[in-house]
Protein 1
Amino acid sequence: MAAPAWREITLSDGRTLAFIERGTASGTPVVYCHGVPSARVEANLIVDDAVASALGLRIIVPDRPGMGRSTYQRGRRIVDWPRDVAELADALGLSTFAVLGSSGGAPFAAACAAMLPDRVRVVGLLGAVAPPDAPGIVDALSRPMRLMLRLARHAPPLLRGLFRLNLRAIRRGGPAASRRMLAWAPEPDRRLLQRAAIRDGFMACFEEACRHGTRGAVADFALIARPWGFDLAGVKPLALLWHGELDRNVPVANGHYLAGALPHCRATFYREDAHLSVPLNHQREILGALASASAAV
């Protein structure tokens, strides 16, 4: 199935939820929870349509509230997201499905598994952030990440301003923007970001997250910077976790914590990979494991 144009549904409270699909329409459904700040277009970077189709997967990627083309939701919480996902699944005629959360999208995927145990077959966590109140997790983050989480929680207007500056720099483009992007990346990710298509796709995620302003993206950061509102011990479905040991965005301590905190977790750690290289270099393995686990339930 070729990458289709975005679609949308109207939720019960009147909000719009936009999404795209990758893979095959008749495949095993997987709801993909994009990173932070990002949007549904992350699928264009992370999900190879041919690989998803060959593995018999139907990957559904919604914009969370206030990002992309989904309506902003005032006062939302991470634990509100499963309700949106359930409504989307109902609209698509899906009784059960898998969820896959990448990076800052992992808490949203885990919330779906915790709160929709009769519908979620398996939860995948890819380069996943751990709860901010987990011992040592905040200290393990890079200085820029700690700053963004602190601003999101305590001074969101400042972070919105920083995001607007970053958005302006991306739209101006040129070598300077590329150099800044490459500067933070560890070598496995730097090699990938030297490819124009990957670099442009990465920047497109941030641009689409801020399509209607920066408040939705900042709200997402604030949510993962606070207690999540559910217990990881309550995640009953099987959890599959993949993490790169060279990850600077979300250091591997996050993955180790989650692997120990989730009741039923199979974790894979890649010694020579970082944040972006795990999904791009190991996609067939990751999606194949998700497909097999979904079929076994």
Protein 2
Amino acid sequence: MATSSASKSNVVPIKVAEKKESEKKWGTAVMNVGYCILPSILLRAQARLLINAQQMNVLLQLIEHWWTADGKVYPSKDTIAGRVGLSTKQVQRHIKVLEEKGLVRRIPRVLKTQGKTSNEYDLSGLVKKLKAIEPDFRQAKKLQKAAASPGGLKAAQAANK
């Protein structure tokens, strides 16, 4: 008697997880060190937010420490300075400018065991500003599509009348 090649097996095949797009781009080892999610509008709106390259770099360092929506952000100025090649005083000045622009709010922290420690940083001002300018970016995207379509922007505007 011949045995059926279609016999059932009680072995469940292991599914190999496909690499995430970020791992395909950067490599798994690099991604395992950690990553930070940024909205593209932050990078695209740097000039509109009136922040220079060093201020943006300091802001990105603060954002890198913001892991959850309700999480606390409190890297030390020394940590930021060491990462970006600035003095602690320069970092402090850049944070002050970001605060004056309404993007960051410093909150002094005092620990019972250590006394005064690194500030906490509230980034809700940045979020609020990005939400306020998002409609302009959405509209610009629509105009860009219309400009690229047959007949261009004028034809698209005429069709919407």
